[in-house]
Amino acid sequence: MKTKNTLKPLVELGLTDLESEIYTVLVENSPATGYRIANMINKPAANTYAALRSLQAKGIVIVEDSRPRAFRSIPIDLLLERLEKQFQKTKMLAAAELANLKPAADDERVYRLATAEQVYERLREMLHRSEKIILLDLFPDALAELRDEILAAAGRGVHVVLKLYQPAEVRGCISVVEPSGAEIMARWPGVGVNGVIDGQEHLIAFLSRTKPEVYDALWSRSRVISANYHSAMFSEIMLLALGEGLETRKDRLPIKFQRLQTLRIQPLPGYAELLQRYRDDRDDQRDKE
User: Fold this and answer.
1) Which residues pair with 72 in a beta bridge?
2) Which of 18, 69, 134, 181 is the most buried (most CB within 10 A)?
3) In the CATH scheme, what architecture does the domain 4-98 have?
4) Taking phi first (over 0 means left), then psi (-120 to 50 degrees means alpha), and beta for anything else, what does residue 115 get?
5) Is the pTM of this model over 0.90?
6) CATH code of the domain occupying 110-268
7) Span 210-254, pLDDT tens digits
């Protein structure tokens, strides 16, 4: 029995609403004449026959060689295989055409993201492009969503530093746990997802825990904001690491804190770009004088 949920995927795979409706009716009622199909879906006969001709041209229905003509749908697995092949062909054509376009230059504006899918897609892209250091502040649901990309970044030698809200083992990363994590998660009715890569790009988001939407989500490649956000998050993580370590080691600075101190003084791409920008501006000003 067809429903809106049955029709939607077919439309997204390239059929029209009417073609999708006719196909689903024929799956359960083949063979059927065009007149009978029009009555079953309560659509004008002329529109129904036009859609049937389109489906026939696409090889999705076959026609009985008799009068009146009766139509039969192809098997579901064959339909899906045919639509997948058409999608792949269209994808290759699109890729070839889009490769001729020259992407616009990067900008440093702040953009608002609208869905949780956008947030995770953007952060995955950031993790993939990171080169030196990643700082992430993640609720457990966000960590689970991004774990594979985090492990991949750490595996290729990027320093990954995590602020978490409950203990979790993440191989190759430096992790600190917020001691009030349970209380914070109970107080905030959603999922915190925050990150900054290389002091160049950052994302700050708070997602609904039960719906595919966001309460707030901002992303930017602003070097000024990103570099300063890096410093702020890094300082908070170092403070947590110090407190975490001092609880168990009273004699000297905790090893995790020492590792973070070493990372803290390493050159950061975002800072380097800002310094070069400021030097260029200063040199331009001197030239004008």
Assistant:
1) 62
2) 134
3) Orthogonal Bundle (1.10)
4) beta
5) no
6) 3.30.870.10
7) 877 788 899 999 999 999 999 999 999 988 888 776 666 555 566
Q: Distances from the Cα of 155 to the Cαs of 2, 120, 170, 202, in angstroms?
A: 47, 20, 11, 21
pLDDT in tens, 2-51: 556 778 888 888 899 999 999 999 999 999 999 999 999 999 999 999 99
Gyration radius of the chain over CA positions:
28
Looking only at the bridges linking them, the beta strands covering 110-112 and 214-220 are: antiparallel
Q: Are 219 and 203 in contact (CB under 8 A)?
A: yes
Collapsing DSSP to helix, strand or coil, 159 comes out as strand
* 267/173: higher pLDDT: 173
- Judge whether 160 and 173 are in contact, CB under 8 Å: yes
Would you kindly state where each structural domain of the chain is located, as residue ranges? 4-98, 110-268
DSSP lists the bridge partners of residue 21 as none
